């Protein structure tokens, strides 16, 4: 744009309307449908050009780990039908039969229930001694038993009135649902026949394991 | 009391310390005051300290440092294996090995058998006591 000529300091020669006409912005506006064309600002360029904040140290941003945990390794001494000795919990010392490893890594075991009172149960591999005694579990179907089978029922909290709040909650005694009892019988049926075929195996599974005087567990063969 | 088991060429001994613990070997030569050269059918001939050997009653007829085949033949002629396994020492070791290798179920069966035997003995004793009374 040509510098506007001055009459004197602060006084322009041409009027406002005259300079507006001279600049010709009205013609460009008319050509572009009423609005003066604006250049598109690229956000990336704008941001990269001048970041608002520079950190004091050069630190690499932390990446979230893409590592997936491996499934629990089953000890090679534990195969379906192995007799295991439980080392902790309510059934400490009981000798039970191993059925399969569940997806959560826990071991599925059963007493059988008729022999030693241990139902179909989950057990952690770390709390178990594997013996070298195996029971034939051909014909035992445990396909449909998985971790969801053992999930707790969600309790529905009933709203208590003020008086009832101070009463001790009458706990509904939870009875085993019938289908679980049926499952137990089905799983144990074929196994009990195989167990009774071996002499003394039934009494063996019914007895609890314990250490006696003179026993050296690190030298004992299981 | 005079000594009965001597360190001599042909003496069968039991290794009682070290890598070859429990192995039956034959003394085939004496190296010096403390060490002997020993050999067995299933091992490489080597030297060992006398302190690591327990001498047995068994002796075989060999010359100093025989060839392996000669040694094996001499051991078979003297019937070392059977003599050892029928000796009370040998029998004891066999029982010890068996007991150590029992698994949990075996130990349970042994327990039941001992109870049964004890019961039978007590029954007999009771009968005898009754008869004597």
UniProtKB/TrEMBL annotation, chain A:
Pfam families: Ribosomal_L6e (PF01159)
Region called Disordered, residue ranges: 55-75
Keywords assigned by UniProt, alphabetized: Ribonucleoprotein, Ribosomal protein
InterPro entries in the record: 60S_ribosomal_eL6 (IPR000915), Ribosomal_eL6_CS (IPR049633), Ribosomal_eL6_KOW (IPR041997)
Gene Ontology annotations of biological process type: cytoplasmic translation; ribosomal large subunit assembly
Single GO term (MF): RNA binding
Keyword S-adenosyl-L-methionine: no
Keyword flag Plastid: no
Compositional bias ranges of the Polar residues kind: 63-75
Record PROSITE patterns: RIBOSOMAL_L6E
Cellular component, GO, one term: cytosolic large ribosomal subunit
Family in the record: Belongs to the eukaryotic ribosomal protein eL6 family.
Stated name of the protein: 60S ribosomal protein L6
Highest classification ranks of the organism: Eukaryota, Viridiplantae, Streptophyta, Embryophyta, Tracheophyta
UniProtKB/TrEMBL annotation, chain B:
Any one Gene Ontology BP term: translation
Keywords of this entry: Ribonucleoprotein, Ribosomal protein
GO cellular component assignments: cytosolic large ribosomal subunit
Molecular functions (GO terms): mRNA binding; structural constituent of ribosome
Keyword NADP: no
Domain Large ribosomal subunit protein eL14: 45-117
Similarity-based family: Belongs to the eukaryotic ribosomal protein eL14 family.
Classification via PANTHER family: 60S RIBOSOMAL PROTEIN L14 (PTHR11127), 60S RIBOSOMAL PROTEIN L14-1 (PTHR11127:SF8)
Name of the featured protein: Large ribosomal subunit protein eL14 domain-containing protein
Organism expressing this protein natively: Zizania palustris (Northern wild rice)
């Amino acid at each position: 744009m040509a510098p506007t000529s001055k009459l004197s300091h602060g006084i322009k020669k041409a009027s406002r309307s005259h300079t507006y006409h001279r600049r010709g912005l009205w013609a460009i506006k008319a050509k572009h449908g009423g609005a003066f064309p604006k250049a598109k600002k690229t956000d990336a360029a704008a941001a990269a050009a001048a970041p608002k904040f520079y950190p004091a140290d050069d630190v690499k941003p932390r990446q979230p780990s893409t590592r997936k945990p491996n499934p629990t390794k089953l000890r090679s001494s534990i195969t379906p039908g192995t007799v295991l000795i439980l080392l902790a919990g309510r059934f400490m010392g009981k000798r039970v039969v191993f059925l399969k490893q569940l997806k959560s890594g826990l071991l599925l075991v059963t007493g059988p229930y008729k022999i030693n009172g241990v139902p179909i149960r989950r057990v952690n591999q770390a709390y178990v001694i594997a013996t070298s005694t195996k029971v034939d579990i051909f014909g035992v179907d445990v396909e449909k038993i998985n971790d969801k089978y053992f999930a707790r029922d969600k309790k529905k909290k009933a709203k208590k009135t003020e008086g009832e709040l101070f009463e001790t909650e009458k706990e509904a005694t939870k009875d085993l649902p019938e289908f679980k009892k049926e499952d137990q019988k089905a799983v144990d049926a074929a196994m009990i026949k195989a167990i009774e075929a071996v002499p003394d195996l039934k009494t063996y599974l019914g007895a609890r394991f314990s250490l006696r005087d003179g026993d050296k567990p690190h030298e004992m063969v299981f | 009391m005079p000594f009965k088991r001597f360190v001599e060429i042909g003496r069968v001994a039991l290794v009682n310390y070290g890598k070859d613990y429990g192995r039956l070997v034959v003394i085939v030569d004496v190296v010096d005051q403390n060490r002997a050269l020993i050999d067995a059918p299933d091992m490489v001939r080597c030297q060992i300290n006398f302190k690591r050997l327990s001498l047995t009653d068994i002796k075989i007829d060999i010359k100093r440092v025989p060839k392996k085949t000669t040694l094996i033949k001499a051991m078979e002629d003297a019937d070392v294996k059977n003599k050892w396994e029928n000796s009370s020492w040998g029998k004891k070791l066999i029982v010890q090995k068996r007991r150590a290798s029992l698994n949990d179920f075996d130990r349970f069966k042994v327990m039941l058998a001992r109870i049964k035997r004890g019961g039978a003995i007590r029954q007999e004793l009771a009968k005898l006591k009754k008869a004597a009374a």
